[in-house]
## 1
Amino acid sequence: MRIRRIDIENFRGIKSASWRLPADRRFFVLIGPGDSTKTTVLSAIERALHDRAGLNVLDTDFHGARVDEPIRIRVAIDDLPDELIAMDAFGGFLAGIDDKGELSHDPTDDSQRCVVVEFLVEGDLEPVWQSYRPPVNGMGEEEPHPIRARHRAQMTAYRIDDRVDAHLRWSRTSSLGKLTSNREDTRATLTKASRAARDAAAEAVTDELKALAKDVQKQVQSIGTTDFSDLKPGLDVSLTNTQGNLALFEGDVPLTNFGLGTRRLTGAATQQLANEGTTALLVDEVEYGLEPHRLVHLLRHLRKEGTFSQVFVTTHSPTALLHLEPDELVMVRSAGGVTELKPLDHPASLRPLLKSCPEAFLARCVVINEGKTEYGVVLEHLDDWDHGTNPQLVPSAALGVVAIEGNGGTGSAGQAKQFRGVGYDVVLFIDSDDRAANDMVREVEALGGTVIQWTGGHSIETAVCAQLDEAGLNAFIQAGLEVADDEAAAKQSFADNLGANGAPHTAKGADPLDVATWGAAGVDLAKARTVVGMTAKMKGWFKRVDKGRRLGRFILDTAALQTGDVKTKIDDLKAAIYARPESPAAEEPADDTTDACDIQGSALDGEPVTPPIAPSAGRQPADPREGPGDA
Amino acid sequence: MPEHLSDELKADAAGFVSALPASVVMPAGAGKTHLLAATAKHIVTDGRTVLVLTHTNAGVYAISARLKRFGVTKGVHVSTITSFAFRLARAYPVLGNMFVPKVMVPEDSQKYIQAAAKVTAAAHIKAILAASYTHVLVDEYQDCNEYHHSLVLKIKDAIPNIGILGDPLQAIFGFTDPLPAWADVLTDFPEHGAIEVKPRRWVGHNEVLGEWLLKVRDGLEPDHELHLNSPNYPTGVTFTNVSGAPNGVTTAALRALSLPTAETILIIAAQAHIARDIAGALKGNYTVMEEIAGKFMADWLAKLVTADLARYASWLFSFTKKCHCGHGILDPSPLGKRYADGRIGSDLLTTSNKRAGAEPAIEALDRVVTNPTLAELASADSGTSQSFAVEPYHDYRVTFWAKSTENRSLVRILADGAVVGERTIPANSEWTEYTVRLNAGTRTALTLYVGFNGEGTYLFDDFSVQRMTDAPLYPNLVNNGEFDAKATTNWVVGEALELSKDDKFTGSASTKVDGSDSGTTLAQTVRAASDTAYTMSFWVRSPGGTISYVVRGANGTPLTGPHTVGADGGWVLITETFSSGEHTELTVEFADVGQGVSYLDSVEVRRTVDVPSEPTNPADPTDLVDRGVAL
């Protein structure tokens, strides 16, 4: 079973969202800044595939707590087992889904058969699970069919969260309980064990359960939890109710007393055993409670085929990202209540960046700098703006800004396009002296990215030098020498290189390292600016992050640079970096649904705008079999 | 206990299953349904699933009933070919290239079959069918036209294990649609000849006729002759040629009634109107079986289609009177006239209580008057009722479980339109068991009516009607025989009597007859049937006094007694059985003939149970109705 598409309306922070999942992937890492509704997406999946009859829904589960618009979550699942496509299950209302995630009323030869589970809650807060199929032109409304809990239970999504403790006990609904019922006769075994446990707490657990605990131990170890040596069932006296007194113990310590990470991993392990590769696993903040090495081990385990049919994790951890592949990432962005979930267009090209700077993927705003020089300059400026004499109210880190070192002109522009394409705010700080790069820069701008580029064919070095007088140029050269690895040797090479680029020779009585002497030798200030700037750029005087920082400091400290194009562009950069994301409240219009469409239909994908969820077919009356009478 | 299957039948079933795809040809009465059910049982006993298709709902019912007898409850789906096709075609309109309405249109059956064949040709649907059923059995295959046959062949692509049963000689459809050549059918379903054909329907019952019927079958085959004038009829078979005689059939039918046998007589007519004519000529001696085409319903719904909105309530009123039992209190005038005039009728409820019990119906009709929509009409007709047969004068207990949301609901037991018992299900109530206990009185049928009071969800379960008494309990003709009302209520008393609350036998009081006021009499006259046995009984305690008692006829003739009873310290039951003779009024009379005090309680006069009821009139035609059936 495989989730192929998720459509969400009016659920918590999501006014609308439509996510089409590629058929060939089973491991999805949802990343995005805070409040980008990643967790809400997991909750939506969990609710739509909830495996029991009832579910408590609150007013606050509605988008903006407005209960007049129903919560509607549709999950399309293909690759269904025979049992579920039979006529007495979903056989009478299967839909089709094509490679692009487009749904059709009937499954055709060009599509996969799938069931679309619609979770619908109206103002009465009574959840309904029913089928959905897109309408066929001219046919009128499709009549929804109830999707029963016993069928949902076969495609359920299990979520690892703080309530994981329940799964470390033997109860009717816990994964340990299910596991037991799969292998043994639950009631007999559990009753026997519980009764025995009551009689003589430690000694009386049945052999069946002990054996099962050993299985769990093995599985837990393979998933990278603590190295348990004596995992066994025991009586947990901390609970007063009759169910679930029997819990997993390590030696004499109940597992529920272990750290959160261990408990989460153990929960995942038992769940995996209980469901044997058929269930979607949802892990919110996969890194939570885990040391880096256990996190890495867990990720490796979850990515293995045959564990869960699909795994959805969210993460804020650079460590996690460092061990993931770019094509596993799904960028989640929320604007105006519309959540977009997008993979990278050319993930392979961002792999080096993911390995070198995973933080960028966790940012809201990525400042992509053409090279090491620009990167250093920007880092130095960020330090000054965040922590200098006149600091910004909200530091850049708090705004989710991460500066990264780009990959040259076209490379950086390409990265900027991709980041922008999946929803990041992008600031591209790039020279204007590369024609190929300039063309891509226009595309970045067209996508809504901010590009900071020197006016007229400049690099940062030439742009700076263009505003310096002789003394300033000398200071610039001095700054370059300061950060050179070997200052003495550098003096010689700087002099040689300047000379080669047009600085007057010593023979003419000039000192190549002292621009003040150049005029007498026939090199005027305009030419001197070009010579110094070009030489600095070509010879990479500042082409290392720490050297770039020195250049940044130079820009900050040089009066002549507090004006002109340098000042303009540095101010632009600052403005772009500290631009506050719009507050969510301002983004959500009180009563306007067209807004959602406008944003969704922006130039981002160029596709025609259709609301992700078609107008409602009426809701199905509650299935009496799922009513409280069934309890 | 499920019916035991003979080893022969089991072997036949197993042989048939292993020969699939195959066909079995069986004449009428040879046990075709038996074999089909046994085959289905064989399949599901192996843990597999079978789809059983036939042509008529009557066939579905017959097969389902046989399966139930054989203890088959799971793994079998029995359906008409048309409704199975309808279901497939409706589920997949794109594949079938047909928009199928929610409700089946009988005239379109053929289109459904053709659409279903297209649907079934799709790979996804084949997968669905294969996942749903391992085997298919098609009954009455002789009635499959070419469209049915090609649908079955499409199903065979998905489910190769198809068995067909039929008898080409019994084809009753196919007069208009072309039938596939039986020889062609046999190429897809080779004849399974291993089952011996025996006249099983006649086993232990007119076996000679059964043998003969099998034999004459040969004469019906193409190119054979059947000679009805043959002298070689077995015992019990006669041939009378009535052609040309105007009343030939009726004469023969009436003569048959006089035969000294308890057999059922069946008259088969070619057309419904001929059957009705014959039945009419037989003056009710035969029962006419209902037409199967549903003409009544079609006619009434056709009226509705053309009806003006203002006529909806009137239509519903007439329709209700026509087709539901227990609406006798809905009077044609003035109530019916109200609806005919487009006015509401509920105000009549306030002027008279003769329509007590009809309030929900009248309120629902009124809602249709004020809001004449089809939706309202459907909801008004949503009160649901069911009649059940009862034996007169027996006590019955009706129990059911119910819960409701929002509005209250009403469950009523009606007899001849009058409410004899009711329970109200309060709004927002949890599952509760309700009991209504009542005596059937003179009635032979009661109607259980569940009325819904507006929107809301009502759940009912486990309706059951239990007879609580082994023998009928005829009503007590005496009023206030318990003396729980004033002693003088309903009684004619010579002297003042006093109620004795301390010395009572049942209820709250007895009456105290004080011997000091000698000459005290106590009498009550009740209506009774003539020539009927009655039992008079009462409890008496006479610590010192003496009481005489007598039952008199209309003219004072003693029918029993007078007798005396007295001078006994404890409560004594006195019973007297007597026949009413020619009298239709009975007077029960007590007189104080002693000096002390006596107490009387529980005076009853009831029809006697164990005396045979009235002698039956041999000429009574009702006695014969059950013997004749006209088709």
## 2
Amino acid sequence: MAILSLKDVRKNFGKTEIIRGVNLDIERGEKHAIIGPNGAGKSTLFHLISGLYGVTHGTIQFKEHLIQNRTPYEISRLGLARSFQVTNIFPRMNVFENVRCALFWPHGYRYSFWHLLGRQTELNERTLQVLEQIGLQDKMHFPAGELAYAQQRALELGIAIASGAEVIMLDEPVAGMSHSEAENAVQLIRGITEGKTLIMVEHDMSIVFDVADRISVLVYGEIIACDKPENIRANPQVQEAYLGEVAVNA
Amino acid sequence: MAFLKKSTIWIAYLLALLVLPQFFNSILAISIYNQMAIAIVFALSYNMLLGQGGMLSFGHAVYFGLGGFLAVHTLIMIEFETVYFSIIFIPLVGGVIGLLAAIFIGSFSTHKAGTVFAMISLGIGELIAASSLIFVSFFGGEAGVSGDRTFGPPLFGVEFLQDVEIYYLAAGWVFIATVFMYLFTQTPAGRMANAVRDNPERAEFIGYSARRVRFISFCAAGFFAGIAGGLFALNYEFITEENLNAATSGRVLLMAYIGGLGYFIGPIVGAVILTLMNSLLSNYSELWMLYLGILFLLTVMFLPRGFAGFIMMHQVAWIRGKLHTLFIPYLLTGIPALILILSCVALLEMSHIEEEVLHYLGLELNPATLLTWVITIVIASASLFAIRLTLPRLRAAWEAANAIPDSEDG
């Protein structure tokens, strides 16, 4: 059974159809990439799955729960975490606090105002482990907003994975990075999503073909192909609609 | 070690509260301490909203005032023996009322932060202030309501007849309230308030309802504002509509902002500064409110992180052992800056005074003569010139003291 299943999902903004009947099943443990030209609706699809936008029509099932039109925090609590296309962290808090905040809910602290954080040994140790995973342990006292761009992206990944979510959605995780920074980020993504389900939107095709088990091609709000990377590369429809354009631009 | 360091700060704070009346024990001094105590709790509670939770409120005096009114009514009930308990618990009565009011108002006002929240808080503040003049039986109209704290049962022989006895009671509550407000910042709810302040959207994606987080901070702030209102009722034994109107809400905003919103100690600093201005400066000049406004403007323009932020700016230089290198440059710029401020104050006072002679800093200035004005303006201009002359040296010293050595880079 798929861990995430979208059935005839549609999203309109006024009279404009942005997502036009998307059907997609993502298996547990799969690394799935969504590609497509600018304006295809990739980020909108992410927002629908993660609860930022409500769907106009259709269902989204995560594990045994129907999650369409539920709030982001309800979906997050079920075990679905995400990062954003534009860096989305807590800029005035330090790096340690950024990660620790992401651990509160999964560790059962909820809205507690009676647990003193200094005494929560397990929570603090887990925070340090995550910081070590993302390579920011030596920056843990820095205000997050003062980190370099690549470090902020790494921190955002840390916030996304800290909860131990089963499904991690990354929206253009290496956008704006240099080649070497992107290489490091890919290594990091591989490491931290090991054994988890990954859904990724990315424009860098070398990374997509390197990381993904399956690729969905979204064009004008519709999935025109969903297959293994080698089949997607050879698909003439995809070549025509997207990859050809990427090749020309490259 | 960290625990020891933190404990030392708290013990020093408690000792300072306890020994303060031993150094300055005049009636005026004790009265000022009591005002400070009330202002500290009130300003810290406001900081829970704005500094910690990112909620700009123009109506925080509502919780202070409602807590205060119920506290005075409780004093009246004690006087008529309707209820029987020690007056030391009166601030708690204020706190509970502040909390109940915050639960009700917060249930619909914390959906959004930003402009929406600010406007709702302004509306609620005006609504309650207007109501206080309509519902005379509870709020007492313009005259307010008054009680008598001395009717309460004595506590270990203390009848709270003297201001100094009220001071120690207030000091106890200030200490307890400060500890609990600090501890709140060290809990998941307190940290999530910071997270929601920084980025409410992201907070929702780590499992938290931004609205619920705001609501909890809002209720806690209402509770502690109510405690401050209860302390006010005990100290003054009366309360009026003025204590829950927009002017009081504005004053607490100034305290928190001037002190420094980003730091826990900031509102304490702001409360002390504003209480001193209110109590002392008002004795010397009718223009003290103007000076307060100018101080606020200058703080917003030059010290956006408040006085506490200004002190904390020196942390890096302190850690690197270079703080002493700033002393002479500060002195060279500070002296002309002080002269400039005093000259400007003299000009303002001369333009305002109705008497023939202004007694100012031991001098007798005659606003009727042109020469007095010319000399004052020349001194002010010369000071400004001296500041411009010495400022580059201060800037260079500052950069040298804060420069990151090569070994620390990266």
## 3
Amino acid sequence: MIENLLSGFSAFGDPLVWLSLVFGSLVGYLIGAIPGLGPSLGVALLIPFTYGLDPVVSIVGLVALYAAAEYGGAITAILINSPGTSAAVATAWDGYPLSQQGKAGEALLVSIVTSGIGIFISALFLLFTAVPLSEFALRFGPGEYFALALVGLSLVVGLAEGSVVKGAVAMGIGLALATVGLDTQTGTPRFAASVELFEGLPLVPVLLGLYALSEVLFLVEEGVTAKIKSAPLGGWRTWNWKGLWSLNGVVFRSSVLGYIIGIIPGAGASIASFIAYAVAKKTSKTPERFGKGSIEGVAASEAANNAAVSGAMAPLLALGIPGSPTTAVMIGALMIQGIQPGPLLFSRNPEIPYTIFASLWIGVPVMVFIGLAGARAWAHVANIPGPAIAAIVAGISLVGAYASEGTMFPVYVMTAFGILGYLLRKVQVPLAPIILALVLGEMMETNFRRALITSHGSLEIFYTSPLTVALLLTAILAFALPAVGFIRKRRRAAMAADPSV
Amino acid sequence: MSFNLFKAARAFTAVASFSVVASLGSPVVAETAWKPSGPVNVVMHTKPGGTADIFIRTLAQSLEPMIGQPIVVVNAPGAGGATQMAHVSQAKPDGVTIGINTMSHFTSMLTNLKGTFSVDDFSWIASTQEDPIIYFVRTDSEIKSLSDLVAKAKASSGTINIGGFGPVGSMQHLGTAMLESAAGVKFNWVGFDSTPDIMTALLGGHVDVGVSNLGPTAPFFESKRIIGLGVLGEKRLNGLPDVPTFGEQGYKVDTSWVQVRGVFGPKDMPLELQQQIADAIHEAMKAKTYQDYARSTGVIDSWMGPKEYDAFVRDVSKIATKQLEAAGLLQ
């Protein structure tokens, strides 16, 4: 293995490989930063450029692009509350409040450093565990996928600030919205008045509307307010090294979680970041700061969504099965090059997996360098006065929504959800559960029904697999514990109010 | 839903097109009469990475320099292909937006998309590939042949799970229904949205039998993770010479029921333009890159132009109607 790994690194003796790495990282960074675009689109766009290149050169560029694009989503999430992908939503929860407190520079610094470490740690795991863990991931059948989606949804309760009831209402809205579109089993249209809705509600415009446009409406309502004075990001001597080091536990846990969830085909970076965020909140000494500008929250989300990149590579390398939409496109890219990803990849084309390991590692410093250079410039965005930023964000949201499909329909969706987001925030209904339910709803429903088909209608499938049972118990606990706490609090409050009880 | 992002490719192709065309330099390419006015969007009904998806991405390599425009693959997956068909049907009939169709398109227009789309809503431009479906199991399965499968299905009264692409009424499901009626047994159909999902479920033991075309399964055959039970086709596949056909094993099914991949567009496309597109695509299929790929995945080249393909589509729809009626899926 060492020999193969060295040969993987030796590929970097070729300047063309370096060029591909830097080019891929830059393109990925920019594509990730534009709301409406994302890693899978970026990889697909780069494929035509790889036709004439050596497979090793092209795979290095594609991997670098994937990793950098998964990071890039954090930039707009932090600065203007516009997560361009669902994987960056959890980053916005704390990143944007930090930005409003004048700490945009610090948030960006933490996001890029933890993203880099997330990739570094997960790539190490990938090297040693890709094959066994991918085999393990095959145990995920429809029952397990349903249970996993339920675990993701159960986190809603832990994330909802304040009212559990309002959190539940938001989740209900999200689940209801997830049913829009063609039925995945029979092809029957549900709540789809026009053909544009056959695919279901498009996620990116919904995200842009709920988060970015509703923020614009608030900015407009507030008018000219006190200007945020964002502390500029100084040189490395001025950084809070102690603060960064104190994140080591969060970052390590989130990286491992992100890697493992990334391996499961169909789970992916957004679920990884949601779960890592919830775990970080549960294990934090200062959980009350989550959602109001916790550095730990940014670190958890970013380490996890980037670690999921390595995770998604595992089943691709070990079995030829894509772990994410982006790796699915990569399989196409490899096949066009005449390389068949599959169980024989390690023995037949060892240069490919080992170059991927090497490029993940070598790509980290390159990506962090680009990210840091960018962070210095981006941090000034937070200093732009309210009215101007409102206009800029509105513009970005409109263009981002249009670019996501190249038609006007998503622009209308974005506008509608902007107004809905504004109204919901007015009555303190949290937005996070809506997004979570919208992302997980389809996965949950499809797999629930598929599970019942494979079990011939018997519910047995949900309690005979140890993995399903463990996941379902986790979900039940996650649902129940906050609810119990809520009831207790009420009872205590009632007792305090009425001493006769 | 995230696959919709591919549609954004269009916004960026203006930049990409110049560089792609420039980077390919000046190798001698065949002149084609088809000169699209802009980047050509090829709308797919599958997620990226599936058989049809790899087909168009490979063909794009030789097609792009011929027509002088980049090919943008737009992935619009959705039950039975309706999402993609909506996309194609709403496009202008100028050849800039076309789609790749498979047998599933014809079956779904007769079942769950009946009333939404019909054969007459589209122009059927050209056929490109024929690709018989195969049935396979994990190497450690007790089932080793079609007769084993049929015997097991008889003993367990319809509880054998067969995982394949698409909902009930899809091309692969109807192939399975044909086997059911030929053997007098019942299977339990489990529909998936992509071939990688079927492979994951089969290798993980969540379904007993998998259905696919040869392409995506080839590495699993080679590494001996799966074994073939039978080929639904006229003869054995070159890429899988040891796996017998259904007929060889004594199960009489209509062997014209093979997967077909073709090109279609919105209706009212001028016949002359259709012919130009068909000629360009068939010319691009002769390129070495495409031929290497096609032979390695075991597909059979198909060369029907607009007139023949349109007639074929109407014929196959009749066969499909018969199959659906036989399977009790048409009221």
## 4
Amino acid sequence: MNPTILLILVLFVGVEISFTSVIWANVIIIAISVLIMLWHRAPILSYVRLLLVPLIPAVGIWFSIRYFSTAQSVHFAWVMATRIYAYAFLGGLFTFSTTTEKTLASLEQNAHIPSTFVYGMLGAFNFVPKIRSEVKIIRASAQMRGINLHFWSPQLLFKAIVAALNWSENLAEAMTSHGFTENAPRTHRTVIRIPWWNYLLSVVSLVGLQLLLLSGLQ
Amino acid sequence: MSKINLNDVTFHYEPTLPPVIEHQNLAFDGGTFNLLTGPSGTGKSTLLKLIAGLYPAFMGEATGTITVNDQPVVDLPASKRAQLVAMMFQNPSQQFAMETPRNELIFTLENLQVPADKMDAQVNDALDFAGVTDFADRKFTSLSGGEQQKVSLAVIVALNAEVILLDEPFANIDPDARLFLLTQLTTLVKKYHKTIIVADHDLSDYEPLIDQLYIFDGERHQVHQADSGEAQTRFAAFEQRQHQPAPIALPAAELSPEFTLDGFTVGHQAPLINDASLNIPQGKFVVLTGANGTGKSTLFDALVKLQTYTGSLQWQGQEISKLRARKYAQYVALVFQQAASQFLTITVAEEIALSLKYQQTTAWTQSRIDATLASLDLAGRDDQVVYSLSEGQKKKLQVLLMLIMDVPTLLLDEPLTGLDLVSAHTVLKLLRHAVLEEHHTVLMITHQLTDVSQYADYHLHLSHHQLSYEASL
């Protein structure tokens, strides 16, 4: 599916379940997400992570609503707990359906997000491994000058920021000298289109969600 | 009319600092190969960045006008300017925005609004011309400096710019890659009538290739075109200082070792050094050479615990992978290839104060430091931000900072890069002094071999995945 359409769909579903209290809707969203993740062959570890990370907030909110809220509603406790998991798995669904590059390229071409923003983001993502190795080098180099930097040391932060500023300037110069002008028109080697079935699938999914939510109200 | 014209150009980084270029008038003809030379730190990079339109857009203040094809460069949008003036930077790793060479070329062509159906052919032509087809889809982080500069050439070819500026493009490159790039650049001039300006302090191989020599005079903040007499004198003087391998001793077996390699293998994807076994002696000045990308820096990374290895690598009889980094750093320190990695504060004076505070002995006093700063031509820069120093000045400061620390063993990764010959001699003298008078061990990677044999004890060479001592340097 086209990343922009998928992103809008996921956000819409996320917002909608925030305002409703149908447990089944949440559970079905989680199930569909798991199915799609299976389809994309997500590694086992990612399911474990998606189950563990929201565990504390989910259990916490279940207990606070079940025992410490004014209504002490069992139903609402389950709504909140499953909702947290639904959010997490919607995130998982999106992450495994696309890549950062594809999403950004699609946002540029389909959503017409300014190219400065898109390439700024891309630059930032490409920086992450660089920053990691830079931090390692900064710590080693400081040790060689007799200083032991911990990860909370302001000097480490300062150096990392200096390095980032330096890179950002070089990156800007590199992009400019390779012909990049902020928000100027560009051509695209790979034109990203939105196939008709993307719209159909989105509409079907949303209609399905509304029916599910309506049935839950009665 | 000339291709490039500078009309009364003056440039300051800061209004309070002296100008780097003052009242400059200069013209470059189309279809010529031009060489710009001068001591490091005079402003060769600055001049090129001005012509490329990067300055004053990104930094500094300029007056006067610079035109290419009679168009003022500052008025052009980047995509138009890039097609007129392309630039290859000194630091190969910092000139790409994308992850792989192919994506960088596509990004460039997209910026120029090349139609999608013509893109692949242009990308392949550019890759082919620069000889980088084989690693077009590898990540930049896994490419050596020489490979990255070839990619940079590919981008320039794809831009099809009329004017090509190169800022010390061969500083981190082995002779083979350099020769290849020079040949391809000559083709661009002769066959495609491009105008090329190369800033380089190393004049070797240029004489038969270039049409004009320009000399940057740092004292007058001006560039002038050398007439044929002056050019000849310059080249002859450089030729005399050209590197002629001189004999050098081989280490005797009974020397006590500082580092011992035994079945040592290191590399990223494929092994760079494979199953090496030898000793690096204590209290000596050893020079490590080898073509670019062979693994010299990776060996240093392994020696300071920044890189994992297999086999055995020992420091004074102890396995390096088992040593505690913090303690070990008091005995073995690395002068990083990127000078900026070594800096921890902001100004020159603060950096020196920091090294003085943590130095292991009291061998370096303030007066000795002041004298050394003067000999390195760094005096009077106390309040300058270290990151605003030229690459050569950064290198000199970096070496001094680590010498002040007085660590017993110093590894130096290309400390002579970007240094003019006088500065290189000063740095080598300092290192020699550290070995002779303070009994330190020095292991230095360098591509610049001119006169190094006067200072070094042994020559260690890396090629074909193996390390061996050589009898000449």
